[in-house]
């Protein structure tokens, strides 16, 4: 390939190119000698790849001038071992696992080597085959109707509308090894599997297999995105294809009903209810309604953050067990970190029973207002705070707060960017929580390196790696200053220094105190007590204000093992 047609093969790789000159060529395959040809005199360096090689089934040595300039290309080859010839391509494409013959330079020749990884990275040609319209018998029609009833896009269609959708489908017969579509291609249709087995791969990595009754390809149509994976037929089978025009027609029929349901939900959800009515309508139209069955994978841990899901009904099981309580109620949000911060999803999730969600694609973000994006950023930061790593005995402070308290606390957060070696915090600074969104921050109990001040910015004035003396290095999604700083208002006790360019969110103790009316430690303690009281019959019928009044009057007492708490016959003054 020339650099113009395949830059990914020729640029940005550390593999050296070997330079060889021109000469006579003799090509041997399995011991059969082919006619020799005389190469032309040496050409200028920019005349193109050239030289001559010989191939033999026996072992041979390739001599090359390792000191030659790698980009000089010259010479001419015969038609069977000549300029622009290729050796080893069948092996690297996976047709053969080992080289079937040796290649020997007869004189100096110029060759370019391509790694197996480079070949694998090339897109596999897809099947250019039109779906055939054919009569659909009653058995097949029932089969397709069952798939449509379970599909998140088509499940809300009326029974009378299913036949119109089925009549728009075309059949495709596929053989093993044929590619349905490749990652990065434009999505122009979706597919329903009647038979066969199909592999799903992303960036050359085989992730899972799809079989009868399953569907694929609808997300690219739904979100106007390129294909996110490559689908290859593993066992021969039949697909039913729906083209983009038919798909859009179904979406238009369903959109008014789905938008109304989405609007109703968003108006009642605490995250979005504060938005103006126009913004809620805009967000509802940017979302789509999706239905998941028990065990369905909603998010995959580590995948690109292209979608966010808001649970309307049902329960979701996250891969991180610490987050299980968060996903068991309507309004829970999945995937906001990946969508807003543009990083791989930190946590996966599966449906527990039937789950209905609103889904929002990354491609829709540009259509939303600044107010909506601000709400989404707050949701993402809530997700980060809920999943902060903690020490064994450290309190889960954020999840001890009520939804309203979480919302007020997140509203106080500040966003900042620091350059490498810039000091974020020094010992004695006011109490605060720092959360790393992107980059690396070193935490040092003391600092012996020289520091300079430049326009109110403190920087470590030394090229020495600060991590050598760091107590801890914080990366994406990690925090510093929870306890006792943020919870109890204790001043900061260590230096925090940007190791790379870093983006952080910050919540100060004073801003949290002003927003919540009390320290987070006291509020978390009271909320724990409220949970206990909610299970006691005496307090079940008290309103929120009465419960708060009771909790504030309670005093904490500690008793040693065997110590008497109340004695029979004493006046009943406490409970």
Provide the residue-averaged pLDDT: 77
What does the radius of gyration come to?
33 Å
Stretches where pLDDT is under 50 for at least 5 consecutive residues are 1-82, 89-97, 116-124
Beta percentage is 15-25%
Total E-strand runs? 27
Name the shape in a single word.
globular
Number of helices: 15
Oligomeric status: single chain
Residues in helix, %: 25-40%
How would you explain this protein's 3D organization?
With 575 residues, the chain is an alpha+beta fold. The strands form 8 sheets. Strands 13, 14, 15, 16 and 17 form a 5-stranded antiparallel β-sheet that branches. Helix 14 packs across helix 15 (544-553). The chain starts with 6 loop residues before the first helix and ends in a 22-residue tail after the last helix.
Keywords:
575 residues; alpha+beta; five-stranded antiparallel beta sheet; four-stranded antiparallel beta sheet; 27 strands; 26% helix; disordered N terminus
């Amino acid at each position: 390939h020339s650099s113009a047609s395949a830059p990914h093969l020729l640029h940005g790789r550390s593999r050296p190119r070997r330079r060889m000159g021109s000469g006579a060529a003799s090509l041997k395959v399995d011991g059969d000698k082919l006619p020799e040809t005389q190469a032309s005199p040496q050409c200028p360096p920019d005349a193109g790849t050239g030289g001559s090689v010989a191939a033999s089934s026996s072992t041979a040595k390739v001599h090359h001038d390792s000191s030659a300039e790698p980009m000089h290309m010259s010479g001419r080859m015969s038609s069977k071992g000549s300029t622009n010839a290729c050796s080893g391509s069948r092996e690297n494409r996976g047709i053969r696992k080992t080289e079937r013959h040796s290649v020997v330079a007869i004189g100096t020749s110029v060759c370019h080597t391509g790694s197996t990884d480079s070949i694998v990275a090339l897109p596999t040609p897809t099947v250019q085959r039109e779906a055939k319209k054919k009569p659909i018998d009653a058995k097949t029609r029932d089969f397709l109707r069952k798939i449509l009833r379970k599909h998140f896009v088509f499940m809300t269609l009326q029974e009378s509308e299913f036949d119109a959708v089925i009549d728009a489908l075309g059949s495709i017969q596929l053989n093993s090894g044929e590619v349905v579509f490749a990652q990065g291609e434009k999505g122009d249709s979706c597919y329903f599997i009647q038979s066969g087995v199909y592999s799903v791969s992303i960036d050359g990595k085989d992730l899972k297999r799809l079989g009868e009754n399953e569907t694929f390809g609808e997300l690219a149509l739904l979100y106007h995105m390129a294909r996110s994976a490559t689908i290859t037929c593993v066992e021969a089978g039949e697909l039913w294809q729906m083209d983009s025009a038919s798909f859009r027609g179904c979406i238009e029929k369903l959109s008014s009903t789905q938008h109304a349901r989405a609007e109703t939900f968003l108006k009642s959800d605490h995250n979005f209810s504060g938005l103006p009515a126009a913004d809620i309508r805009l967000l509802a139209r940017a979302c789509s309604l999706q239905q998941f069955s028990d065990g369905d994978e909603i998010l995959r841990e580590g995948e690109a953050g292209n979608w966010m899901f808001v649970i309307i009904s049902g329960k979701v099981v996250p891969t991180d067990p610490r987050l299980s309580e968060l996903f068991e109620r309507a309004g829970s949000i999945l995937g906001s970190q990946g969508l807003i911060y543009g990083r791989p999803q930190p946590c996966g999730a599966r449906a527990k029973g039937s789950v209905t969600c609103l889904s929002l694609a990354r491609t829709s973000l540009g259509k939303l207002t600044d107010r909506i994006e601000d709400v989404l950023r707050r949701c993402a930061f809530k997700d980060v705070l809920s999943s902060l790593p903690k020490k064994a005995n450290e309190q889960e402070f954020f999840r001890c707060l009520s939804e309203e308290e979480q919302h007020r606390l997140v509203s106080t957060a500040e966003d900042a960017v620091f350059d490498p070696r810039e000091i974020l915090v020094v010992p004695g600074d006011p109490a605060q929580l720092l959360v790393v969104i992107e980059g690396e921050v070193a935490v040092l109990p003391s600092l012996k390196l020289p520091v300079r001040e430049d326009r109110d910015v403190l920087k470590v004035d030394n090229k020495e790696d600060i991590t050598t003396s760091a107590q801890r290095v914080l990366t994406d999604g990690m925090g510093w200053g929870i306890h006792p700083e943020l919870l109890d208002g204790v001043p900061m006790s260590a230096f925090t220094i940007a190791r790379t360019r870093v983006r952080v969110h910050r919540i100060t103790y004073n801003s949290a105190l002003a927003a919540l009316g009390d320290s987070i430690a006291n509020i978390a303690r009271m909320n724990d007590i409220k949970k206990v009281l909610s299970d006691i019959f005496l307090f079940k019928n008290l309103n929120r204000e009465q419960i708060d009044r009771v909790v504030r009057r309670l005093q904490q007492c500690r008793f040693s093992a065997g110590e008497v708490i109340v004695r029979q016959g004493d006046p009943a003054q406490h409970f």
